[in-house]
Amino acid sequence: MSRRRRIYEGKAKILFEGPEPGTLVQYFKDDATAFNNQKKGTITGKGVLNNRISEYLMVKLGEIGVPTHFVRRLNMREQLIREVEIIPIEVVIRNVVAGSLSQRFGMAEGTVLPRSIVEYYYKSDELGDPMVSEEHITAFGWASPQDLDDMLSLSLRTNDFLTGLFLGVGLRLVDFKIEFGRLYENEEMRIVLADEISPDSCRLWDVKTNEKLDKDRFRRDLGGVAEAYQEVARRLGILPEG
Ligand code: C5P
Known about the structure:
A hairpin with a 3-residue loop joins strand 1 (6-9) and strand 2. Strands 8, 9, 10, 11, 12, 13 and 14 form a 7-stranded antiparallel β-sheet that branches. A 5-stranded antiparallel β-sheet has the order 1-2-3-7-6. The protein has 2 domains: 6-82, Phosphorylase Kinase, domain 1; 85-223, 2-Layer Sandwich (D-amino Acid Aminotransferase, Chain A, domain 1). The two termini are 21 Å apart. It is α+β, with helices and mostly antiparallel strands. Helix 1 runs parallel beside helix 6. The longest helix has 23 residues, at 145-167. The chain has 6 helices and 14 strands. The structure holds cytidine-5'-monophosphate.
């Protein structure tokens, strides 16, 4: 991985120039951060697991017609993706009260929401990813009303599909964060799912015991972080590479 041009390095991933124009290689690191970079650590083997889990979920979403940036997995830590123009908005979809929603409104974690809540956050490390409304997004030109419409409908389809998929393996999809990009192809632009979907970006609780099998184990120092990610992969039928 050394001689390729590094396009961007984030907290958990690196993007390298891809083998063909319009492609990138997404490399998954073991590094973990939380609370806007205030907490840092390493989860051994996380990159390998997230590469596989995100591949699995993106492929399944592609099969039901949700367009994604994913092309194919290249090796243990890398996947080939289409180059997109990332929209600087994190979309969070919540089915059960947890995390910042619980803190903001003083509601007990675990309260099932009568309908899913969609929130938008502006991606900015300096500002600490502030929550924004659709008005801010369109007024500041981060996304057009049409982009937002596409992002919302893809988010809801993704939530419906992933909720069922995880429930099928005994996991409750409490909430998750997704990102979108603009893909330019044949003089046309379409909005596609980008980044990753993994236990770094989802809250997943065991349906029977409510055990947390996601990054909250790292954020809250609960221990067994790598084991939790392995358990998610195992339940999805993703076996360790021999
Ligand atoms: O912290 P909060 O409760 O707002 O997080 C909601 C969901 O979004 C969680 O599943 C969390 O893992 C995810 N998230 C993320 N990246 C962020 C913020 C939240 O993946 N920067």
